[in-house]
């Protein structure tokens, strides 16, 4: 269960002990003699920090999924605002329309010029509806690929931010060829003669995530997830029910956490989040993300295009191979 916590914030049930301490701190600070109570505030703050660290270092896979879906968790447009300069958004797939579930555009990260592509879920109800809750249609993937080809033409590196429950499951997406659109992206991204880095910033749901994640370097934020299916979808198939118990079991069986994916060789790195998750300190997370992106692009730019594409192809071909 989740609740709306103090100050109107969204609180996950396992965060409640931390939030209770935060309420106490705010209550003390609101008193007229708060300056005389600094020692008490400091002690409570230290207790809060320890409890937050303890809670988030022992999250279950299902709790990790819930953190990845936190309404206050930074999305693509948030990261663009916090870590990019001179962002110039590019729209449309030149075939059907402009899908707001995928954002594309040129930007500067530090002094590095990039093409940035990312899923956008939306924050308000109107935004979520316009963005299909981050579930892209075929035109979203075709838009992404069209802009990636443009980046290749101008020899610009590509940065993708993955945050989707999955591709849009409606009949209109099927009618316009969602499977073909994703398949073409997988094929063409493997051939692009420019560096590509990808980061799962929240949810990494199935082909909807992979459709913009065929990259030379793939990372996950510490409390994100990446899997062939959501826990609820898995539970509905295996047990014909999606509830707390089956969701917990499915999340554990899917090995969907960042550490699981790193151990299984599906991603290259895990980026540590600030204590309590990216939603508690978005700017710090954005700074870490920007630093990682710039560092990896600096490494990849030294490689010849032929080396990039060969290594990228080999990287994905060997996934799923088990020795012994």
Please tell me about this protein's structure.
It is built from 14 helices and ten strands. By secondary structure, the chain is α/β, with parallel strands linked by helices. The protein folds into two domains: 2-58, no CATH class; 65-317, 2-enoyl-CoA Hydratase, Chain A, domain 1 (Alpha-Beta Complex), CATH 3.90.226. The strands form two sheets. Strands 3, 4, 5, 6, 7, 8, 9 and 10 form an eight-stranded mixed sheet that branches. A two-stranded antiparallel sheet has the order 1-2. Helix 6 packs parallel to helix 8. It starts with a strand and ends in a 7-residue tail after the last helix.
Task: Give a short summary of the structure.
The chain has 14 helices and ten strands. It is α/β, with parallel strands linked by helices and 324 residues long.
Please render the helix and strand layout as text:
Elements: E1 2-4, E2 10-12, H1 16-29, H2 38-56, H3 61-68, H4 76-83, E3 85-90, E4 102-109, E5 112-119, H5 125-130, H6 138-153, E6 158-164, H7 171-175, H8 178-189, E7 196-205, H9 206-210, E8 217-221, E9 225-227, H10 231-239, H11 244-254, H12 258-263, E10 269-271, H13 282-300, H14 305-317
Parallel strand pairs: 5-6, 6-7, 7-8, 7-9, 8-10
Antiparallel strand pairs: 1-2, 3-4, 4-5
Helix pairs in contact: 1-2, 3-11, 4-13, 6-8, 10-11
């Amino acid at each position: 269960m989740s609740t709306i916590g103090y100050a109107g914030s969204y609180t996950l049930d396992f965060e409640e002990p931390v939030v209770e301490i935060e309420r106490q701190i705010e209550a003390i600070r609101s008193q007229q003699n708060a300056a005389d109570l600094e020692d008490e505030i400091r002690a409570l703050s230290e207790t809060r920090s320890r409890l937050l660290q303890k809670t988030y270092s022992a999250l279950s896979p299902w709790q990790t999924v819930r953190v990845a879906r936190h309404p206050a968790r930074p999305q693509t447009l948030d990261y663009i605002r916090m870590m990019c300069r001179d962002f110039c958004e590019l729209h449309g797939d030149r075939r059907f329309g402009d899908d707001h579930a995928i954002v594309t555009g040129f930007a500067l990260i530090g002094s590095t010029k990039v093409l940035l592509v990312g899923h956008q879920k939306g924050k308000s109800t109107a935004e979520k509806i316009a963005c299909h809750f981050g579930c892209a249609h075929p035109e979203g993937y075709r838009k992404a690929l069209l802009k990636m080809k443009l980046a290749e033409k101008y020899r610009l590196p590509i940065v993708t931010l993955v945050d989707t429950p999955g591709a849009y499951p409606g009949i209109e997406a099927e009618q316009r060829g969602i499977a073909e659109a994703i398949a073409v992206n997988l094929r063409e991204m493997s051939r692009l003669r420019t560096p590509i880095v990808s980061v799962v910033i929240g949810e990494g749901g199935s082909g909807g995530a992979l459709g913009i994640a065929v990259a030379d370097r793939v990372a996950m934020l510490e409390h994100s997830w990446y899997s062939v299916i959501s826990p609820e979808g898995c539970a509905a198939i295996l047990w014909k029910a999606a509830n707390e118990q089956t969701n917990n079991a499915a999340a554990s069986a899917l090995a969907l956490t960042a550490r699981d994916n790193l151990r299984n060789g599906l991603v290259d790195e895990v980026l540590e989040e600030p204590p309590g998750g990216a939603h508690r300190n978005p700017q710090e997370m954005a700074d870490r993300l920007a630093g990682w992106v710039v560092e990896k692009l600096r490494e990849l730019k030294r490689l010849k295009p032929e080396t990039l594409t060969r290594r990228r192809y080999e990287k994905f071909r060997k996934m799923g191979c088990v020795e012994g």
